[in-house]
């Protein structure tokens, strides 16, 4: 069960080159991204309406896509405009097109009702274009439901255990963090403060603190259905960070986008923008060092959520127990559940009103037995 | 759904050596091919009636097959003739035997009712034993339904797109080819002429033409349920090929046999007999060069039909649209569908008349719980 | 369908080090073995009650297990005794614990009703601690139902065919062996004598016989549901072995424990204790030579039972035929079937009497939708 009427991250902008194409399954639907001659990113159904070959096996011709099997040509709206060897193009010859917006170096796609695709609803992430920050990014294929990735991010007490060899190290401090969970305007917000705490090795490496302990924060913003932004950082202890003075500190702005591939697999995109002190390193070297280290950290999460998925699959429906630190993820899951229910209700209503037209549909659309 | 009462190619003759055996799943049934001492090819059910070990794990003893688990011995009819350690052979101890005919270097097998297995129905392919021709062959395991392979071969407009880097190159010429589709005596025939057209690189390499353009033909013969023979060739343009004069030209006789392994996997056998000019090359060198080049071409087809199968599986039953060039494959699919319907009807009638005897069947046949 | 109220071998004792842990699926249930500080072996459900991460991803802390995701701590009974970051531990927070007994270098686990776990029911195997014997051992993952492994062991006529290149070699002698199958006190016993027979190469290598032929025995003891002990050996022919004089001979005591992982996969543990003559070899060298050679033999069995499983899966329910040498395995299967039936009946009776309490169960136990 997915939320369809929402913007999902479909790809990093640089995954699709001008005149290039990229096939990817999103929410169980095959999608092909491509760019026209002027660089505009588009997305069509990745399944030729003729004999179902994925269009990503074809090629871009000007602003159009040509199927690699028998050469049908589709325009940017998914309408078939040419069938080689015949004059007439069959009226039903088209594939679905998806609204796509390129923003903040990401390709955003709307998998639901196109009329509802309002670009103003896209989560803004200005840190990808802010000179005060540098950023790194990656993409993983995760063998778990996307909500398990969200869960992971919404409960950062896991950092002390899962990442004890990397960014964790002080489980007690993480568990004892002063944590507040609230519904935000757009989703769920969890704010955690670890005042006067020993900074983890990764912090010490990234910034020169003047005090042995730091005031450290984690602000987690969940944007349903599948985005979690985590702002973490620290200043010298006692310099007023909690009251708003974060001067002289360090900060990391993590963006996590867990786009469902299928019910049990996820495209996990993330970026990390930061203000780390490069020390003697060039910014490029700092970034590649940070990427290497975070790759280890994310691999730790991947192991956990994939083991969790297998475990849940093995004993489906067996009871689980909630604890206090689940507040954030429970809110997040509830929001998503409500969105799914609302969509189901809306689509049922729409179906009823369409019954008449469906009854007229040409059954000759399905000529083959496969 | 398969047609059972038909001759399928089960193996190349040289895949089964004298006294050797070969296990292979055909139409979901496990089959073991073997040869007796005089070289006769036989096929039995590849599943010992004792404890189900495939007989292909055993060995040939004279003209008989011995199971590799507890040594039951089967004769050429599949009758168990020896149970080591006991005198009596249980009456039900037998495996199914399949009619097999060796012809034109192929082993043909009849998977249906043995009484209907008329060798005269086997598609003849004399080009495998004709001194004017040399030939090459291979076998692929394809992860798609066999009918997708047939489809591919029945609509050669795909050559211009799928094989543009190998035997294709002029998609427009392929799409514009003058094409006639007819029901033939034995199946479906598609004849295509590309008059006065630029020959593809592979043709130029294989033959010395005296004119820059050629008259080029493709004759596709579908023999249901799963064989497609394709006769292609070309002569100098304007020398009367279409009227019957193919002197001084070149020809390729391709035989394609797509035997179902399961509903979604296929043993794809093919051979290519040709009259290419060896130039400075020996016939053997020419053949191995041609085999290498066609291996690339067939790999292109394999990618396409396997992607198609995955795509069809993902959105089962979603509509597809027919185009003009589908005429050949639509006829072919219809013929196969009718054969399957007829068999189902016949077997239902037979079942009714057998009900009495079935009611008497010894239920002690199934002693184990597995 | 498994027998639950029985002792299964869960692991070799040395697979679980002090303070170490081992995750393993047994009878479809995830189990984690670990050892406390004093070395006691324990087993808990390998699925955290919080968010289902296998506890085998966590770590041992003193005598307790800590989950590697959010740090819940479980005591040796599976009771959660700590939830980091909160005072109260939820009442339902616990995982199942399994009775474990360490005996004869093996960890025995009881997967059923703990109250019935009587250690006196464990099959004793003193040969693992007898100075007159040395022994070797191993473990395989087998892709077949555990009963197919039992079948294999209960009918040793297979030795002549499956192992003809290793320990077999004289199929006729095996089939003609004088075989007696009886119900023993604890299970099924098959006794086979091959009097005055040519010893196989492995016997000749392991022992110096004074006669060209030997009197050779095989005593197979089945302990339901999943253990087979096989005592084999030989003495010089005509020296009275059958009457009880086994002086001057050689003997091998094989223990086979086929613990179900799932319905169709098996943890196959085995050990071989023997009195072979080391000749010029040290005992350690003899053992490693023997292990290497038996590894080849067991691989032959693995190929057979896995091929059998695939074959049975392909044509589920197709008839099989019994032969005389099946007596042992048929008895064994019948015993297991009766045990499963009895458990089902007992658990149905128990369920009825528990209905009232189940009706009161707190449905808030399942807070997440996964
Ligand atoms: S499948 Fe795309 S053109 Fe035929
Ligand atoms: S399985 Fe073939 S003889 Fe037993
Ligand atoms: S999953 Fe074990 S503590 Fe959360």
From TrEMBL, chains A, B, C:
Keywords: 2Fe-2S, Iron, Iron-sulfur, Metal-binding, Methyltransferase, Monooxygenase, Oxidoreductase, Transferase. One of its GO terms (molecular function) is methyltransferase activity. It comes from the Bacteria. SUPFAM superfamilies: Bet v1-like, ISP domain. GO terms for biological process: methylation. InterPro entries: Cholesterol_7-desaturase, Rieske_2Fe-2S, Rieske_2Fe-2S_sf, VanA_C_cat. Residues 7-109 form the Rieske domain. This is Vanillate O-demethylase monooxygenase subunit.
């Amino acid at each position: 069960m997915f939320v369809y009427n929402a913007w999902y991250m479909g790809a990093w902008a640089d995954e699709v080159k001008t005149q290039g194409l990229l096939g990817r399954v999103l929410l169980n639907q095959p999608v092909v991204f491509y760019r026209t001659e002027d660089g505009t990113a588009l997305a069509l159904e990745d399944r030729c309406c003729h004999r179902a070959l994925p269009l990503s096996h074809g090629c871009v011709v000007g602003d159009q896509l040509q199927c690699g099997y028998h050469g049908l040509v589709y325009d940017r709206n998914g309408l078939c405009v040419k069938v080689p060897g015949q004059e007439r193009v069959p009226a039903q010859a088209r594939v679905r097109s998806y609204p796509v917006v390129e923003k903040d170096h990401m390709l955003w796609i709307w998998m639901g009702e196109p009329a509802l695709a309002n670009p103003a609803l896209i989560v803004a992430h200005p840190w990808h274009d802010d000179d005060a920050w540098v950023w790194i990014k990656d993409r993983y294929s995760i063998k778990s439901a996307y909500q398990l990735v969200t869960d992971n991010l919404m409960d950062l007490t896991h950092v002390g255990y899962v990442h004890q060899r990397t960014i964790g190290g002080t489980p007690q401090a993480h568990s004892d963090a002063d944590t507040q969970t609230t519904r935000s305007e757009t989703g769920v917000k969890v704010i955690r403060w670890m005042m006067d705490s020993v900074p983890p090795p990764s912090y010490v490496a990234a910034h020169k603190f003047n005090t042995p302990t730091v005031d450290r924060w984690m602000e987690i913003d969940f944007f349903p259905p599948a985005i979690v932004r985590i702002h973490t950082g620290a200043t010298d202890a006692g310099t007023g960070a909690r009251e708003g003075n974060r001067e002289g500190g360090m900060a990391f702005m993590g963006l996590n986008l867990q786009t469902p591939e299928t019910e049990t697999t996820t495209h996990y995109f993330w970026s990390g923008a930061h203000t780390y002190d490069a020390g003697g390193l060039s910014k490029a070297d700092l970034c590649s060092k940070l990427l290497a280290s975070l790759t280890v950290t994310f691999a730790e999460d991947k192991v956990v959520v994939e083991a969790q998925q297998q475990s849940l699959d093995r004993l489906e429906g067996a009871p689980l127990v909630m604890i206090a630190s689940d507040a954030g993820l429970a809110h997040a899951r509830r929001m998503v559940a409500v969105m799914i229910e609302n969509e189901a209700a809306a689509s049922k209503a729409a179906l009823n009103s369409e019954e008449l037209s469906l009854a007229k549909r040409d059954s000759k659309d399905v000529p083959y037995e496969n």
